[in-house]
Amino acid sequence: MNAAFSTFIALFAISGVLSILLALYTSFQKNHFSGIRLFVWMSIVTAIYSFGSSFELASDSLEEIKFWVTFEYIGLPFISPLNLLVVFHYVGRERLMTPKATLATLTLPAISSLMMLTNDFHHLMYQNIQLRTDTPWPLIDFTMGIGYVINGSYTLACGLVGMWMLIRHMRQTLNVYRKQTATMFVGLFIPIGASLIYTMNLTPYHIDPVPATMSFTNLLYCWSILSSGMLTSTPVVRENILESMRDGVLVLDPAGRIADYNKAASQLFPFLAPSLIGSRAVEVFPKQNLLSEDADMSFLEAEERQIEWLDVDEIRYYRIRSSPVYHRRGGILIGRTVVILDVTENVLLHRKLERMATHDGMTQIYNRTYFVECSERLLTDSRQTLEPLSFALLDIDRFKLINDTYGHDIGDQVIRHVVHSCKIYLGDRDVFGRYGGEEFALCMPGRELDDAYSLLERIRRELASGPVMTSAGPVKVTASFGLSAAHRELPLKLLTKQADDALYRAKQGGRNNVQIAGLSDSEADSGSQQLQPTGDAPLSQKPDGEAASG
Questions:
Q1: What is the pLDDT of residue 223?
Q2: In the predicted structure, residue 505 carries a pLDDT above the cut 80
Q3: Per CATH, which fold does 359-531 belong to?
Q4: What is the pLDDT of residues 234-290, one digit of tens each?
Q5: Which one, of 238, 286, 225, 266, lies nearest residue 25 by Cα?
Q6: How distant is the alpha carbon of residue 227 from its chain centre?
Q7: ∠ CA 378-379-380 to the nearest 5 degrees?
Q8: Torsion angle in degrees (nearest 10) through CA of 355, 356, 358, 363
């Protein structure tokens, strides 16, 4: 037998053996690859084609050769379509391959096999088959029929579509999976290239080289399965996990480049696109959407960080959890996973609950509990810094009469009016709270007694300057004030008691006045004259510093 023929026969047989081994190995492996059965069937039909080609070369009569050519067609038409179906599953597009779509994909190969089995009756696959006269060993020459052309075109089309899908997918997957993807691409490219060479009659004695090339591709598959877990650890497994996660996930390589992301991440950050795979994350994120402290993108490497993200018309709050990924051997950093959780609703709810716990619902100033807490801190600070601090209580005069006469709705309106009038004159540091029903408290760090007295007088005159216009008509409103000044080691309770005593004197003294703690009625009257500011601003004019609601 010719040595070249012997080599081809051996390569074809090796290809068949490797295909059988691949089918057996993958069928017994535990994996989550949805296309594993298709791969097993692809290996089986490849083995049928390879063994048939080997026996065809080893045959010594035309009838024997025709038998093995027909045998080859039990598997040959299915190889490329099955390979395409495997690719669909590999790149995560198996949902497109419904049972009906799969059946349609395999219908033409089945027709081609049936036509080959019955070729002697219609000659649609091979118009004629005869032995060549110019070869040292029995080989056939044939004339292609329309069925042969259609089957060959369909096989080529399936291969080209599969290669296009793999190239497109390669840019969107991790480096660790690109080796697998490249292996599948080569597994399609080499047989198709060999088939084109065979079609153009560029092989010795017009021998079909495709089974020989499949020996190489099968070895390549074996190497990829053993070295990188091909078909047992595939991108589609990773994608199914990532895409099932509600939280956004970014995968960065050691250089900080985007290696992958899931759909949830692209919904949080719409600028993410497949074209950005391989780009540095710090350059991809628009810095104008981040607060200044996060503009350096350090949150991508922080163990946990909450960021504020400016969306189209609102601020979103994201909690970022970044975790390094190390190689299981050697502990070398191979990347980083960044999990993004949208916590906007939680943050807003927390702020709402926090405000409800610290603010009065009707007036939106501090409630008594939080006001006392803030005042305690300010009093402690004033002792440490030797800064003056004044404390005041104010009470709406004859408020019960207002409620009894006009009703509680009007009473609430009067309370809100008093709060608004106070806030006009309060400074940034002044702490304002609702102390009781119609009683309010002021803690004024940095204000000496005369400055605090001047402030209270402005508020008093603002309230007394005119009636409150309500749905029940104009309602006259005035308030009484009690003022005390903090001294070293003076507790807040005693400071409040002094202000309350002064407020009581203001009520007893005819209401609508400011009384200072520690002075008798006569001293208070003279003290009021001494503390009266000489240049009050007009009542309609707002002094420097916005009013603090807390």
A1: 74
A2: yes
A3: Alpha-Beta Plaits (3.30.70)
A4: 555 555 566 677 888 888 877 788 877 888 888 888 888 877 877 888 888 887 777
A5: 225
A6: 32
A7: 90
A8: 90
Contact (Cβ atoms closer than 8 angstroms) between residue 389 and residue 499? no
Higher-scoring residue by pLDDT: 151, 543: 151
3-state secondary structure of 255: coil
Mean pLDDT (the chain) is 82
The set of residues, in sequence order, having a beta carbon less than 8 Å from that of 462 and lying 6+ positions away, is 421, 424, 425, 539
Is residue 524 over pLDDT 60?
A: no
Helix intervals (H) in 173-234? 175-199, 210-228
The model carries a pTM of: 0.49
Nearest to 56 by CA among 207, 228, 217, 266: 207
Closest alpha carbon to 399 in 415, 422, 387, 385: 415
Residues 37 and 86: their CA atoms lie apart, in Å, by 9
- Residue 464: the pLDDT is 95
Q: What is the 3-state secondary structure (H, E, C) of 106-160?
A: HHHHHHHHHHHHCHHHHCCCEEEEEECCCCCCCCEEEEECHHHHHHHHHHHHHHH
Nearest to 165 by CA among 189, 149, 194: 189
Structure tokens at 357: 């716990």
**In the chain, where the domains are located:** 3-237, 246-350, 359-531
Query: 476-502 pLDDT, tens per residue?
Result: 999 999 999 998 788 999 999 999 999
* Domain 246-350 CATH (choose: 3.40.228.10, 3.40.50.150, 3.40.190.10, 3.30.450.20): 3.30.450.20
Q: Answer yes or no: is pLDDT of 528 > 60.
A: no
Q: How far apart are alpha carbons 456 and 426 in whole angstroms?
A: 9
Question: Within 10 Å of residue 68's Cβ, how many Cβ atoms?
Answer: 17
Beta strands per DSSP E along 486-528: 514-516
pLDDT tens for 142-168 read 888 999 899 989 988 998 998 888 887
- If you compute the radius of gyration of the chain from its CA atoms, what whole number of angstroms results? 43
Question: pLDDT for 3-13, tens place per residue?
Answer: 666 777 888 88
Whose structure tokens read 């000496």? 448
CA dihedral 401, 406, 410, 415 (to 10 degrees): -10
pLDDT of residue 144: 86
Smallest CA-to-CA distance from 489 within 382, 395, 392, 407 is with 382
As assigned by CATH, the class of the 3-237 domain is: mainly alpha
